Amino acid sequence: MKTLKNILSNYGYLTKAELAEIAEHFPAMKVVIKWGGMERERVPAWLAADRIADVEANDIDYCRSVFLSGKQYDLLKEALNVAK
């Protein structure tokens, strides 16, 4: 629960630790990976860390940030009964 509140207080942006926890508890939740040069990707949380590691290991690009889409962010706020 604390992780979800931290994500909301950071406007949907995820740290590496938060992404790992989301992937463990909510694997189907979609997250957005913002790359340095490539197009953004929307992937399930369980796949995000592996995708980032693969792209960075092959020196294709780097990850700028990982965040929830606006829709996912709004659904999370609604589920936690946070005022809009």
Give the count of structural domains: 1
Number of helices: 4
Q: Quick one: overall form?
A: elongated
CA(first)-CA(last) distance: 19 Å
Helix content: 40-55%
Q: SSE order, as H and E?
A: HEHEEHEH
The largest beta-sheet arranges its strands as 1-4-2-3
CA-based gyration radius: 13 Å
Could you tell me the strand content as a percent range?
15-25%
* Poorly predicted parts: none
In words, what does this structure look like?
There is one protein chain. With 84 residues, this protein is an alpha+beta fold. It has one domain. 49% of the residues lie in helices and 21% in strands. Strands 1-4-2-3 form a 4-stranded antiparallel sheet. Helix 2 crosses helix 3. The two termini are 19 Å apart.
Give a brief description.
The chain is of the alpha+beta class and 84 residues long.
In terms of topology, how is this protein built?
Elements: H1 2-9, E1 13-14, H2 16-25, E2 30-35, E3 41-44, H3 45-57, E4 63-68, H4 70-79
Antiparallel strand pairs: 1-4, 2-3, 2-4
Helix pairs in contact: 2-3
Q: Any descriptors?
A:
84 residues; elongated; single chain; 49% helix; 4 strands; alpha+beta
